[in-house]
Write a structure and sequence with these properties.
The structure is a single chain. This protein is 0% helix and 40% strand. It has no helices and eight strands. The chain has a four-stranded mixed beta sheet, with no helix packed on it. The protein starts with 6 loop residues before the first strand and ends with a strand.
Length: 75
């Protein structure tokens, strides 16, 4: 049985709940060229960077206009 990838779950700020399977490292944002596309006006074109190293996931805000939070705490 294969393991499920880590997930990023957005529950506030969007029209509905958003769940993204983090299958690789990459950039999250509205730009068409990013790895994790989120089409919403509160999301910057290049909003945050996701780094995956084994079971460790790191999310870094890229200076987005509205910021990024994990469990309500700003990055």
């Amino acid at each position: 049985m294969s393991e499920k990838p880590p997930r990023l779950k957005a529950v506030e700020g969007l029209a509905g709940e958003l769940v993204i399977d983090l299958v690789k490292s990459g950039i999250l944002g509205r730009d068409p060229a990013v790895e994790f596309r989120v089409e919403h006006p509160t999301v910057s074109r290049k909003h945050a960077e996701v780094k995956i190293d084994g079971t460790k996931v790191e999310l870094t805000d890229l200076g987005s206009a509205n910021g990024s939070r994990i469990n309500g705490r700003p990055l």
